[in-house]
Structures are given as C-alpha cells and as structure tokens.
C-alpha cells in the first residue's frame, strides 16, 4: 500500500473545505474531495490538480445513508484506506436580519434540517469511513465547528457573538458533544478526533462577511488533521488554542 497519506474533506468544492483540501494537498496528502454537486466537484478537483495537488472526487451527500456508503466504497477503490477525515460540510439554515434565528418563532423543520447535516451527517460519514480509517497507522478526524457552539461563550454577557442563531449554534454545540463521545470511544486506539473553529471567514456561507480568508480559516483544520501520535483528542481548538465548551 502506498505510503502517501489520504484525506477526505466533505463539502470541499468551495470555501473553507476547498482550502483545507488545498492545504493538505500542499503537504503531500492525496485528497479526496467530497461534494454533492457533480459539476462543482469536477471543477474543484481540476483546480486542485492544476495547483499541484493529487486530488480525486467523491460524490457525497452527508444526509444520505446510501451516499455515505457509496462514498466509502469509492475511497476504498481509489485509495485503499483513509488517514484523515475532515467533516466540513455544514448548513446554517435560513437566517433573519442580522443573522438571527429567533428561538420563539423558529420553524422546527429548519432545526431538523440543520441538525441532519451538521450533526447526524457527521456521525453518518464518520461511521461509514471508520473501517478505512482503522487501516491507517495514524488516523485523524476533524469536525468543523464554530465558536457560536461554545455554551460558555454564548452564556457570557461580556462576549459579543451577534444575534441568537437558534438552529445553527446549538447544532455546533451538539457536534462538539458528539466529538467528545467519539474521543471517549476511541481512547487507546490511536484515532485522534477534535473540533475546530475557523473563525469568522468571508465566504458565501457568511455572505462574504468576516475578517478572515478561507485560507486562514482552513489552517486550524490542517493543523489538527496532521497532529503527531499522542496529540490531543476530544478537544475544541481555534488558532489561538483551546476554545471553552
């Protein structure tokens, strides 16, 4: 089996996901670009290859069991194993003015859709890829979270995090909690799993509002994806260090 490490990044056809794929590709990883839109997937793979990365596409809709299983089979055919999984795909759900999601008027179907992608989708894809990750000598999993998922920060009146985002923010709190449970289950196995906050990044996800570029937002994910053996696990990080739960 090739010594080249293999990484799958979900939602990697644009934005932070694309830059995570580019960053890992620049480090010599073979990168599986996960995306649900075939045309955008092909464009992203071509762009990564033009930049010198060894990239291939994997059609993946994280909300579908069959899609996740088919994606795992595709990675197995094309690479034989997986060393890194970055669960980047995510949705915010519809927002009101100033990015608000008022909990008193929130459509429950919005909550369900956000959790389906941001939490259940991560569990679905992680479990589908686990047999391939277990073939790696140093498996790493990174779950892309957000500081708005920090209950500590959200409940601190002296911290400014903007309007209430009552579907998106709790979905990231849920994701953080799930990350800890995986870390507990993986104890002693060598699989390191952590949550990452990219900061407020100017992409189409944020309406291009933010003080950070997608390249900057990708740095923490690349760092956690390339942790040495014995590195931290079950933690929540941004560029500055540990983010409180």
How does this model look, in words?
By secondary structure, this protein is an alpha/beta fold. 41% of the residues lie in helices and 14% in strands. The chain contains seven helices and eight strands, in the order E-H-E-H-E-H-E-H-E-H-H-E-H-E-E. It has an eight-stranded mixed sheet with strand order 3-2-1-4-5-6-7-8, sandwiched between helices.
Biggest sheet details: 8 strands, mixed
Strand order of the largest sheet: 3-2-1-4-5-6-7-8
Strand content: 5-15%
Assign a percent range to the helix content. Answer: 40-55%
Describe the secondary structure blueprint for this structure.
Blueprint: E1 6-9, H1 15-26, E2 30-35, H2 38-50, E3 54-59, H3 65-79, E4 84-87, H4 108-133, E5 140-144, H5 151-154, H6 168-186, E6 192-196, H7 214-225, E7 236-238, E8 241-242
Parallel strand pairs: 1-2, 1-4, 2-3, 4-5, 5-6, 6-7
Antiparallel strand pairs: 7-8
Descriptors:
8-stranded mixed β-sheet, 14% strand, single chain, 245 residues
Short précis:
With about 240 residues, this protein is of the alpha/beta class.
